[in-house]
Design brief:
A hairpin with a 2-residue loop joins strand 6 and strand 7. The chain contains eleven helices and seven strands.
């Protein structure tokens, strides 16, 4: 039977202690959501659980000794195994909105609609595009790699920039405060081995910049015209103009934006129209 006497030993400090530990684990699992770390954690927990059961019920002295002495090694190995996730967690903690030091980033409905129309126009024209929208994490180091513009965003301007005949089409456009600051910018490529092998450099660059920043990236495939969005190292593909508008609106105006994007990840593995640049 359940021992109710356990509650008599609980104090306010012990309850707070338990809640803090639970909060830490919740935060870790939230950061790992949608990443390959989930599979690694599942494997580690399965092995640990099987080892504990075997050592306790079968009285395996050697296995018990191995588990006990493996804990220090795991403490060293965990930062190495989960280095990308830990780096992302520290980067999030350092963002101004996390520390409640600045106002929440907002974008007008008109600007979102403009980006959606431009993405649809680029797709219909068969033009590849990489549009990075800066949020709270500064992107100045990537802006400095491109050609400075500081121009108002328009459909015609984006069509001109990404036209194959212009020198600015090869690279990313970076937008800050609804203005194009630079074009032909160089972005870091994602090293995530779980990305679809059919995805080309443009998509890997779009995912790569969102692995270390909170930027939102719109990617238009040159070969297939498929429109995708990358945010928080997650990629949502096969978006039409209406779906793109709704997704961007949710990412900007709702705290559930990341959850919506994670749910749409199934689309990434459910469709394929050939290699996308």
């Amino acid at each position: 039977m359940f021992d109710l006497d356990l509650f008599s030993h609980l104090t306010i400090s012990s309850v707070v202690d338990i809640l803090l530990v639970a909060l830490i684990f919740f935060g870790l699992f939230y950061l790992m959501q949608g990443t390959r770390a989930v599979t690694l954690v599942r494997g580690i927990l399965l092995v640990a659980f099987a080892g504990i059961l075997a050592s306790n019920f079968l009285k395996l002295t050697a296995v018990t000794w191995l588990i006990r002495n493996s804990i220090p090694a795991l403490l060293v190995a965990i930062p190495v195994i989960f280095q990308p996730e830990l780096r992302r967690a520290l980067e999030r903690l350092g963002r101004p909105q996390t520390l409640l030091l600045t106002r929440r980033n907002t974008t007008s409905i008109q600007f979102i609609a403009l980006l959606s129309r431009a993405s649809g126009a680029l797709s219909k024209a068969g033009l590849g595009a990489l549009i990075v929208i800066e949020r709270h994490t500064g992107l100045q180091e990537y802006i400095d790699t491109g050609v400075q513009l500081d121009a108002a965003v328009s459909v015609d301007l984006l069509l001109t920039i990404f036209n194959k005949g212009t020198p600015l089409h090869d690279g990313a456009v970076i937008i800050r405060d609804e203005r194009i600051l630079a074009a032909a910018c160089t972005l870091p490529l994602s090293e995530n081995p779980d990305l679809d092998r059919e995805l080309g450099t443009r998509h890997r660059a779009g995912v790569g910049i969102t692995e270390s920043t909170d930027a939102i990236v719109i990617i238009v495939s040159e070969e297939t015209g498929v429109v995708s969005v990358s945010q928080n190292a997650r990629l949502t593909r096969y978006l039409d103009e209406g779906n793109l508008n709704r997704l961007l609106t949710n990412l900007y105006s709702s705290r559930l934006g990341n959850t919506l994007l994670a749910r749409n990840l199934v689309v990434m593995n459910g469709k394929s129209n050939g290699k996308s640049k």
